[in-house]
Amino acid sequence: MAEPARTPEDEPGVRGADGGRSTQHTERPATPTAPGQQNPLNPAASQRSQSIGTVVVAGLANLTVAVAKAVAGMVSGSAAVLSEAAHSVADTTTELLLFIALRRGSRPPTTQYPFGYGRESYLWAFVAAVVTFVVGAGFSIFQGVQAIQQRHEDLDPLVAYIVLVVSFVAEGISLLRSVRQLRRRAARWRLPWLRVARRTPNTTVKAVLLEDSAALVGLVLAGVGVGVSELTGSPVWDGIASILIGVLLLVVATTLAHNNIALLVGRAAGEAVRAEIERELAAVPDLRSVDRLMTLQLGPEDILVAVKVNFDDDASRAEIEVAADEAERRLIARNPAIRYVFLDPTRRRE
Fold it and tell me: Looking at the record, which segments are called Disordered (predicted)?
């Protein structure tokens, strides 16, 4: 893989004639590309492009099935199918908000926002979770309670079955795409993809994965509710299925909201990233040890690294500067998501 270009904004500075502290900063600038185009020299841009594609596919699938479910729900009289229509409407709105998050979060840094706008993507993703909570879960539970209270027994399930099956296929295609993207990310770290899904800072992929998984479970619940209601002649089961769909959406919305709050507050990079940074630093000549390592997830594909390192006592000022440059080069070349590197070289005083 080609090494990303680096442009040091601050030249190395040394304070003190006794080999005091030197502070360096390196930023990896974003490589310009056309919208939606993958740049082989900029893996972060490729990840964003894949995420946009995943969101677009999921959004189109949800919009299509939302219309079909709404028609089927009205024709069949099923509260569960109408709840699934609300579920798809909420998911479609979520995909639109996630698309906004990706576009706004990928804007380049400015003087006022030197670390870029990556965290704004977490804000929009949080709003998307709230939409799922209010629109999807609220409507589904309301529909379920109303169906149980009114107990209309004029269900016409044939149309509902057809739409549920077609919707299952469409949602399954969208889910497979998000799983493939997570598998590619997991292969880079040699970790199980489910573990990566739990910890990934890419909230758009995580949101699509959870929403599509919930959609498939919701479709099964709706099908079971309609089927049992048809067999027993009681619409109560259809209402119960609608309520269960609402509870499912509550779980998804709460999970996404909690994840985005953690990233908005400022979560560190994953343990695998930290371990990789420590391995790369350990291979730098004249670097004795890492005194303190701090990381910060600035956005889905942007990481800030701040590290205080100890050098050999006999290392000269020139050797320290060369080693510091080597450390930065190794980190940025090894992990393209590392966008900013701040080094604080020092000699350990015994």
Answer: 1-47
